[in-house]
Design a protein that fits this description.
The protein is α/β, with parallel strands linked by helices. Helix content is 40%, strand content 14%. It has ten helices and ten strands. The strands form two sheets. An eight-stranded parallel beta barrel has the order 1-2-3-4-5-6-7-10. A two-stranded antiparallel ribbon has the order 8-9.
Length: 280
């Protein structure tokens, strides 16, 4: 059975998310553990984590299919020491909440070198992750998300992601999330079978395909290689219905949990989930 869900709000508490996901036809989901636009991490309310785990069982959602997305301010590649240290501390705090909720996977954008260059950025990210892994539970796996090719972003190619993984000392705790919109921004064309085969081959050659643990399933508001990072409803963008039909025709892709980060509310996500299921 395909695993599919969407990014869900935690405004009503963590314990409500499993039910809300079930109600839109999902059997997994992605969440933030606090507001992604601030540094401050709010503790989980008493018993909310316990009820969250009970509701996962009630709605038959496997915690290993769930993803926590990091806050937006984190930049592990930053050359600014204060920003870099804040990013490390914030990620440690977020991962501790992830562990408290019993969620295995934590997603983070590798970061931007802010003009200092790719080699600097990769080494900076690896050093940050070495520090973070010493201060967090070994039960939590960090997934590096591929980025749109723009500015000083690190991670728009699998070669870059592979270099980060190889540089980190305890890299058994590292995997990747593939975002279809970001990949499309960076010239990974999944609309053709040859394009999907090239994608799978590059992942295998750069780090091993087993490192791919999660999928952000997003259409793109802009055409191939635009580098804009603007998500669109499934089938309404430049990847399109037939593009996703091709992409999802591969067994290697269908076995990965699919998480929508498309625009809109729960009703919109329910429509996208129905669209994806219709393609299968």
């Amino acid at each position: 059975m395909i695993k599919i869900g969407a990014h869900m709000a935690i405004t009503k508490g963590f314990s409500k998310v499993p039910e809300d996901s079930f109600n839109i036809g999902a059997n997994t989901f992605q969440i933030f553990v606090h507001s992604p636009r601030v540094w401050a991490v709010t503790p989980i309310k008493p018993n909310d984590d316990v009820q969250f785990k009970e509701n996962l069982k009630k709605y038959c959602i496997d915690p290993q299919d769930i993803l926590v997305h990091s806050g937006y301010l984190i930049n592990l590649a930053s050359p600014k020491d204060d920003m870099w240290e804040k990013s490390i501390n914030s990620m440690i705090n977020e991962m501790q909440l992830c562990s408290q909720l019993g969620i295995k996977y934590f997603n983070v954008h590798p970061g931007s070198h802010l003009g200092e260059g790719e080699e600097f950025g990769i080494n900076r990210i690896a050093k940050a992750l070495d520090t973070i892994f010493k201060k967090t539970s070994p039960d939590t796996t960090v997934l590096l998300e591929n980025t749109a090719q723009k500015g000083g972003n690190i991670g728009y190619s699998f070669e870059q992601l592979g270099k980060i993984i190889k540089t980190v000392q305890n890299n058994s705790r590292l995997g990747i999330t593939y975002d279809t919109c970001h990949g499309f921004d960076s010239y990974y064309d999944i609309r053709t079978k040859d394009g999907v085969r090239k994608l799978i081959s590059e992942i295998e050659d750069s780090m091993g395909f087993d490192r791919l643990r999660m999928m952000h399933l997003n259409d793109s508001k802009f055409d191939l290689g635009a580098g804009k990072d603007r998500h669109e409803f499934i089938g309404k963008g430049f990847i399109g219905i037939e593009g996703f039909r091709t992409f999802l025709s591969f067994d290697e892709i269908r076995k990965i949990p699919l998480l929508l980060e498309t625009p809109g509310n729960d009703a919109d996500h329910a429509n996208d989930i129905m669209t994806v299921k219709s393609l299968l």
